[in-house]
Design a protein that fits this description.
About 35% of the residues lie in helices and about 15% in strands. It is α/β, with parallel strands linked by helices and about 350 residues long. Strands 2-8-7-6-5-3-4 form a 7-stranded mixed beta sheet, with helices on both faces. Helix 4 crosses helix 7 and helix 9 packs parallel to helix 11. The chain is globular. About 45% of the residues are buried. The mean pLDDT is about 95.
Length: about 350
């Protein structure tokens, strides 16, 4: 690093994205991307006319996409916020709502800790229970920003609406941010609770269930006062932070929602297949509601399995954190990809690979 970097950033430990190697073709089961392409409606929306209009700024108010999302979720467009990926929304939320500090699970999305340290916010990382679940009673911290991924990552475990509502009731002076990146794969969204609780901020993404990880598009649903807070920060940084092509693609994706929900059902089926096959091989697999499973084997260490899979053309995500180092997070891909993953894993355990 240079001698010009501000002192407060010298010790900042940046988020580590999943591997994107280019040395050979891999079956990528490491970054929770969709195995399915965007719908034909999305492909058609990103057309030559839209490309020609790249000379023009995008709509900072994102009216067409806000309207489409509002219709889908049965809220007002004033209850919708849009940004350049859900990470942007998380970042702005840490800026806006963490004056009294923030709490989040100790084992969860790694960016929460990064954002807290980036903005010099005091934080508490709350341990999970022995079964890797979140105990809502641990989040009675009224006044501090509460951030929970639901389903959680990398575990895939999910709180129900009653548990989330309990956290909201116990913390009327806290913003409760529920990060629903994986909610479409078997969980129940809590967005309807935003009509009852002004302190609830529900964050979603187009990266997972809507097959648009490369487009960088996220959204939030909340009371319009919270949305206004986020808009204030957006317009103070980069009001054009969603490009024209992404807005067109996102609007088409929302209007073609049935296609994506069908794909989610296929991924759920593939997740059930993968879980069953791993259990047959002696793996312990947490009951996931996401587009991945979190699994470990007594026959092989987590890092060793990760490395052997990689050597055989399959990428999964391994974390070196002590409490989860025996596990690997395995994205659910197509049926063919999961069959290949099980085949290779079987051979590794048999010692033939």
């Amino acid at each position: 690093m240079s001698r010009f970097l501000k002192q407060q950033y010298l010790s900042l430990e940046a988020y580590t994205p999943g591997e994107q190697p280019r040395d050979k073709q891999y079956i990528k089961l490491n970054t929770n991307e969709s195995p399915f392409p965007p719908s034909e409606a999305v492909i058609n929306a990103v057309n030559a006319d839209e490309v020609r209009d790249l000379r023009l700024y995008s709509d900072p108010e994102c009216k067409a996409l806000k309207t489409a999302l509002a219709e889908l979720y049965e809220v007002s467009p004033n209850n919708i916020y849009l940004s350049n990926g859900s990470d942007d929304i998380l970042n702005f939320s840490f800026m806006a709502f963490s004056e009294n500090g923030v709490v989040f699970p100790e084992i969860s999305y790694g960016f929460y800790k990064v954002f807290a340290e980036l903005h010099n916010v005091s934080y508490t990382a709350i341990p999970l229970k022995d079964d890797f679940s979140i105990d809502p009673a641990d989040y009675n911290v009224n006044g501090r920003l509460i951030v929970i991924a639901n389903p959680n990552a990398p575990t895939g475990l999910c709180l129900d609406l009653g548990q989330i509502e309990g956290i909201l009731k116990a913390n009327p002076d806290s913003v409760v941010l529920i990060d629903e990146a994986y909610i479409d794969f078997g969980g129940e969204s809590c967005f309807k609770l935003t009509k009852q609780y002004k302190n609830l901020l529900v964050v979603g993404t187009f990266s997972k269930s809507r097959s648009m990880a490369g487009a960088r598009l996220g959204f939030a649903i909340a009371d319009e006062e919270l949305i206004s807070d986020l808009e204030r920060i957006k317009y103070s940084t980069n009001p054009y932070n969603i490009n024209r092509l992404t807005l067109a693609a996102g609007t088409a994706a929302v209007k073609d929602n049935g296609y994506y929900m069908d794909n989610c059902r296929k991924i759920i089926q593939n997740r059930e297949y993968t879980t069953l096959e791993l259990e047959k091989l002696g793996f312990f697999v947490l009951p996931s509601k996401a587009n991945f499973v979190f699994a470990k084997s007594e026959k092989i260490g987590g890092e060793e399995l990760y490395l052997k899979l990689k050597a055989n053309g399959i990428l999964v995500r391994h974390f070196k954190t002590e409490k989860i180092k025996d596990f690997n997070r395995i994205t659910i891909g197509s049926k063919e990809e999961m069959e290949k993953f099980i085949e290779v894993t079987t051979k590794i355990l048999e010692g033939t690979l």
